[in-house]
């Protein structure tokens, strides 16, 4: 092979000498342009330029000479090429032959160099497919085909690893000098820099000194930065990961992505889609190297073998603090890049890996547009108060359908606004998340508890809104108030929806028959209309509860479609009071609803249940003055029911049950309750029965006692129970004067008046004496310095 190489090089040198000296046809076609071409890729340039300016190198063409010997014929056969073109084509063929000779000589040199080494060792890292290609490779393919060029590069790579490995026999300079001299077309300058960088990485891997390790990695990075497009980054970046030199892991792939797509076709919507997709695919191959480093640090990818095919690379374990530092470094380096396509790729990867905190902390200025576009509906900046819609008009609106994969971007956008103290924008995003409707996939439906959490957070953000949100001072206050009212209203309605859903589920559970009864009914052993009705009602309640879990409902829908049909009167009352339906207690709707609620409670648990419901609902709706509670209706309804149940023996009802329930409903305010009883007692048409009147008078006595106790407790700074304990013995006149003189006069006058009312009753004395004595003792205790322990 050496002899053959020498002869081929001598022939090539002879042709090159003729070309350089421009002898023969070379001199004739000088100035016609590049006619050399390339034997590798068959892309040699044809003759160019203005052919009218090409000199006729072979003399004037005689148009009077006939090809068939005839003297002067007006018709001549036209040649396909001119003589100048034919000369140029001949020169090009000679140049192709010269390049073929040079390439063949270099291939022979490479084969000789490989044969001087342990071939089996060089090829031991090849897989089966590569072995097969190598066995079938011909000399012609090695010289003239791209496949041969690729295999030659792989052979040179194995040879360089033999020299640069830990058990190698030299350095890159030792072998690269011979390769660059003997086969420069196979071993280019970029290859030299690449393998020189690999040598530095190998030295850094075995260097114990951390500073020297960093310097060697930096040198390798500098070499590779000059030839990023020709480097095998998949392998070399893994080596940089071993060294924890993440600057190279980020910057080298980005440089190669720019080299592969210098025109930016990946983000150009004006070009052909196939071209754009191809450019994007090339870029993403480079981006994947960076994101794989993130996955490796996060621990989401398998530890794959990389580096030299002969030996696996060993990666040191790192602690969580260092891991977080490296992840932050990759994020920061990535954001510093001007490559917007990579930013989106990086952002999506970090979200998929659960690195939201790092993304929000180090994300670039394009993070907000990215999150907005990923959420499909960009959030518009609020610029004027005129764009604010009142809470009342927006209360029944629902949001758009947002799939869960888009909702996560909106959730991140809200977190970003909170982090940047843009509270108003955060509140709007949270509102969109809370109102989003379900898509076709039921898995995308947020639960009502999740919606409540979104709205609760939105309320907090609206309360925290400040001038930093970018709103003018004159409009910010009105905007914040309008937004806050809207959010608080929606949150209250959502709480009603959650309660109604729970009530319907509980109703369905109560009405659903036991399994044994259901089986017997199916077998024909039980036929009960009530059973069928309950089963149908349970199914309906369960379906309605499922409807409520899908999306937000307006307060009108909750009242008319869910609460009223299922007789959830307590919820109806709460919604009526929340919506300020009438503004006073004279509303027939409110009175009728209260009556239905009390009747429902009586049917379920008697007076005890009714009083319990009154305490719970009344205290939630009592505003402080008793104006919106129909106390007269409630008092008369409960007192009549208590009297009837007591007389019929259905239930044992105490004298204080109703009055104390009314006091609890009014949050301990005795005067409105006393006025209600006084109004009822003053009307003989309403209370014609003496038995009912004496019952109301007993209740009045309880109210007056509680009033006196509460006033004393308030002045003493203790509770009513504490006051009753203090008043367990006698107290001095000074203590008596603690009670406000005006209130004492009111209680004393009422006690005196009701003593007279008791005497007027046409009832036996044994039924009225205890009530009469109670009023008298109360009056005397307030006038005189007597003990309160008697009552």
TrEMBL record:
Coiled coil: none
One Pfam assignment: Nucleoporin_C
Keyword Transcription regulation set for record: no
InterPro entries: Nucleoporin_Nup133/Nup155_C (IPR007187), Nucleoporin_Nup155 (IPR004870), Nucleoporin_Nup155_C_1 (IPR042533), Nucleoporin_Nup155_C_2 (IPR042537), Nucleoporin_Nup155_C_3 (IPR042538)
Any one biological process term the GO annotation gives: RNA export from nucleus
Nucleoporin Nup133/Nup155-like C-terminal domain mapped to chain residues: 84-708
Cellular component GO terms held in the UniProt record: nuclear pore inner ring
Major location category of this protein: nucleus
PANTHER family xref list: NUCLEAR PORE COMPLEX PROTEIN NUP155 (PTHR10350)
Record protein name field: Nucleoporin Nup133/Nup155-like C-terminal domain-containing protein
């Amino acid at each position: 092979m050496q002899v053959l190489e020498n002869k081929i090089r001598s022939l090539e040198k002879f042709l090159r000498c003729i070309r350089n000296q421009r002898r023969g046809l070379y001199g004739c076609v000088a100035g016609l342009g590049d006619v050399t071409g390339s034997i590798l890729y068959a892309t040699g340039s044809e003759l160019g330029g203005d052919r009218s300016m090409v000199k006729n190198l072979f003399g004037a063409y005689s148009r009077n000479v006939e090809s068939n010997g005839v003297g002067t014929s007006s018709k001549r056969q036209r040649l396909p090429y001119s003589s100048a073109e034919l000369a140029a084509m001949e020169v090009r063929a000679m140049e192709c032959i010269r390049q073929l000779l040079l390439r063949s000589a270099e291939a022979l040199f490479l084969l000789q160099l490989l044969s001087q080494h342990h071939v089996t060792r060089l090829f031991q890292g090849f897989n089966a497919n590569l072995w097969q290609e190598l066995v079938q490779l011909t000399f012609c393919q090695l010289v003239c085909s791209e496949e041969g060029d690729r295999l030659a590069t792989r052979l040179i790579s194995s040879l360089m690893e033999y020299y640069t490995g830990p058990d190698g026999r030299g350095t890159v300079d030792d072998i690269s000098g011979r390769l660059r001299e003997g086969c420069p077309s196979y071993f280019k300058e970029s290859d030299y820099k690449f393998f020189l960088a690999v040598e530095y990485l190998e030295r850094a891997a075995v260097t114990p000194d951390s500073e020297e390790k960093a310097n060697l990695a930096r040198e390798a990075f500098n070499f590779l930065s000059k030839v990023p497009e020709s480097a095998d980054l998949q392998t070399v970046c893994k080596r940089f990961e071993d060294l924890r030199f993440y600057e190279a892991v980020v910057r080298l792939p980005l440089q190669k992505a720019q080299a592969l797509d210098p025109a930016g076709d990946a983000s150009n919507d004006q070009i052909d889609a196939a071209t754009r997709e191809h450019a994007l695919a090339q870029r993403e191959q480079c981006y994947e190297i960076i994101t794989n480093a993130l996955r490796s640090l996060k621990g989401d990818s398998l530890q794959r073998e990389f580096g030299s095919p002969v030996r696996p690379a060993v990666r040191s374990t790192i602690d969580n603090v260092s891991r977080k530092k490296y992840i932050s470094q990759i994020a920061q380096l990535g954001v510093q890049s001007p490559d917007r396509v990579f930013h989106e790729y990086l952002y999506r990867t970090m979200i998929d890996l659960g690195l939201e905190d790092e993304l929000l902390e180090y994300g670039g200025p394009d993070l907000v547009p990215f999150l907005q576009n990923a959420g499909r509906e960009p959030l518009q900046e609020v610029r004027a108060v005129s764009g604010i819609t009142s809470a009342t008009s927006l209360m029944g609106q629902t949001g758009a359908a947002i799939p869960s994969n888009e909702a996560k971007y909106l959730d991140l956008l809200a977190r970003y606004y909170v982090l940047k103290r843009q509270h108003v924008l955060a509140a709007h995003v949270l509102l969109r998340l809370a109102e989003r409707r379900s898509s076709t996939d039921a898995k995308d439906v947020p639960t009502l508890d999740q919606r409540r959490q979104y709205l609760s957070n939105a309320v907090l953000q609206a309360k925290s809104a400040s001038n930093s949100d970018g709103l003018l001072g004159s409009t910010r206050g009105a905007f914040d108030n309008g937004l806050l009212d809207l959010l608080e209203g929606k949150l209250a309605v959502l709480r009603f929806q959650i309660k109604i859903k729970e009530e319907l589920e509980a109703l369905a559970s109560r009405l659903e028959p036991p399994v044994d009864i259901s089986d017997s009914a199916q077998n024909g052993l039980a036929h009960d209309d009530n059973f069928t009705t309950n089963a149908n009602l349970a199914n309906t309640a369960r379906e309605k509860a499922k409807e409520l879990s899908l999306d937000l409902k307006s307060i009108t829908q909750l009242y008319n479609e869910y609460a009223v049909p299922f007789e959830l009167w307590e919820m109806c009352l709460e919604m009526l009071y929340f919506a300020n339906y009438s503004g006073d207690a004279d509303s027939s709707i409110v009175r009728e609803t209260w009556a239905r609620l009390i009747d429902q409670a009586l049917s379920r648990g008697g007076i005890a249940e009714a009083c319990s419901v009154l305490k719970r609902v009344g205290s939630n709706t009592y505003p402080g003055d008793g104006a919106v509670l129909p106390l007269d209706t409630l008092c008369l309804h409960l007192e009549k029911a208590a009297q009837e149940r007591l007389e019929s023996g259905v239930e044992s009802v105490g004298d204080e049950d109703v009055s104390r329930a009314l006091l609890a409903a009014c949050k301990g305010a005795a005067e409105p309750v006393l006025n209600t009883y006084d109004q009822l007692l003053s009307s003989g048409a309403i209370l014609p029965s003496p038995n009912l009147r004496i019952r109301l008078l007993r209740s009045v006595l309880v109210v007056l006692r509680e009033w006196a106790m509460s006033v004393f407790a308030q002045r003493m700074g203790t509770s009513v129970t504490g006051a009753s304990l203090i008043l367990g013995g006698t107290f001095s006149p000074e203590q008596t004067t603690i009670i406000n003189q005006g209130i004492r006069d009111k209680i004393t006058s009422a006690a005196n008046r009701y003593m007279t009312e008791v005497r007027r009753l046409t009832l036996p004395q044994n039924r009225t004496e205890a009530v009469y004595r109670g009023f008298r003792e109360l009056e005397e205790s307030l006038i005189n310095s007597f003990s309160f322990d008697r009552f």
